[in-house]
Amino acid sequence: MATSIDENILLTGFMGSGKTMIGEALAKKLNKPFADIDKIIENKEGMPIKDIFKNEGEAAFRAKEKKEITDYLHADNNAVISVGGGAFLQEETRDLCLQKATVVFLHISWDAWLDRMDMIVATRPVLHGKTISDIYKLYEERQAIYAHHHHSITVDYLDAEEASDKIIEVI
Ligand code: S3P
Fold first, then answer.
1. For substrate, which residues are the binding ones (predicted)?
2. What pLDDT was estimated at residue 78?
3. Ligand 1: does its nearest atom lie under 6 Å from the Cβ of 85?
4. Distance 152 CA to ligand 1 centre (A)
5. What is the CA radius of gyration of the chain?
6. What is the CATH number of the domain that holds 138?
7. Is residue 2 part of a domain?
């Protein structure tokens, strides 16, 4: 699919695949604004995502996530957008993303993910208390939601500069 660079580019993928850092680098290269939906939620709520999960539960977080993604996409900002790794669990949100943006899936292999794991788990409430085999199961299950994309790249061991260059090549 040929992509116009003049539209939103939205990054999806498993927690820790680098959506925020790669999104920032990509936005700079394409001279677009960058929006990290989780950051927008944290700023609005005045607390980190893990506290939203703790105080209000996952369903409440998912409702905020859906609202912020919907509002942002309807504003037609022509931006690079990073959404949380669970955003595509909500079919309506996912469909809107596919309609209003070029969706790029950042695929990370399980081995590369394990190498980064220590940096990821502490700030991800959906991983708290889970064993490695639980996380692997979640990683596998999630691949089905990330299958909904326009383009994908593998980000294993790439830094944000390299990964964003790779995105520019494929879109
Ligand atoms: C989640 C991913 C997180 C964040 C929340 C839930 C998920 O974002 O939205 O903790 O369910 O995969 P990142 O993918 O940026 O870590």
1. 38, 62, 85, 142
2. 95
3. yes
4. 19
5. 15
6. 3.40.50.300
7. no
Each residue of 112-126: pLDDT tens digit?
Answer: 999 999 889 989 999
Is 110 among the domain residues?
Answer: yes
ipTM of the complex: 0.98
Top mutation candidate among 126, 128, 138 for ligand 1, by most atoms within 8 Å of CB: 126
36 Cα nearest atom in ligand 1: 15
pLDDT for 146-171, tens place per residue? 999 999 999 999 999 999 999 999 99
Tokens of 37: 């939906």
Q: Is 15 in the pocket of ligand 1 (CB under 6 A)?
A: yes
List pLDDT tens digits, range 67-99. Answer: 999 999 999 899 999 999 999 999 999 999 999
132 Cα–ligand 1 center, Å: 17
pTM score, whole prediction: 0.96
Count Cβ neighbours within 10 Å for each residue of 21-46 and write b for 16 or more, e otherwise: bbbbbbbeebebebbbbbebbbeebe
Task: For residue 80, list its beta bridge partners.
Answer: 9, 34
Supply the range of the domain harboring residue 113: 8-170
How many folded domains does the chain comprise?
1
